[in-house]
User: Fold this.
Amino acid sequence: MKTAFVIEEQKLRKNLELLQYVRKEANVDILVALKGMAFWHYFPLMKQYLSGACASSLNEVRLIYEEMGEKAHTYCPVFHEEEFEEICRMSSHISFNSLSQWEKYKDRVPGGLSLGLRINPGYSEVETDLYNPARPGSRLGIIAEQLPETLPDGIKGLHFHVLCEQDSYVLERVLKVVEEKFSEHLKQVKWINMGGGHHITRSDYDVEHLISLLKDFKTRYPHLQVVLEPGEAVGWQTGYLQCKIEDIVENKG
Assistant:
């Protein structure tokens, strides 16, 4: 028996239909995050329901460009000089993790790309520090105290990612902090990327609350295009691992 992860297309399509419903009802963009769902054979199906895909490495950018036929929304904690030009060629949006990364690459970005900065609201409900991008000392994103009141010329968006397998009520509390700390910056940009970690397709997820939350946010910032990047939620409970057990070792249960 060959080891394989088997996807049941009917279940995947059901997840995609729900995500498309949220996308249309809330008038937001929903991207598949490859770090959570990179089954490229299903990219043609995903394109029917989602707005595109997001990447966090050159290999992910290339996979999106070559197999989905789309340019990626790209964020990396750090961009490597030898990869940056190729990443730009295959991306539509690029978010920089720090002001120093922005300063380093701003003059190397070709026209047509929409550029953003990752912000760190300093608030997350992820309980394990190892996985908490907003914990004290985190290097992921720019804290409010370090962001100038007037954003650098050329910055069109803001990006945050502080959720992990969480629901819309956690997002609601996160957004409250984001608005408290970055409301003036939100007025200066064209889009806000709310990252991943949204477990939208989980059976107990309150989809209608999410839609209401996003609509309410957009009434306060009607100029903003809102982007969500679920990964795991796209493939949630759509398949199984087929494998052969070669040995069982017993050691006190």
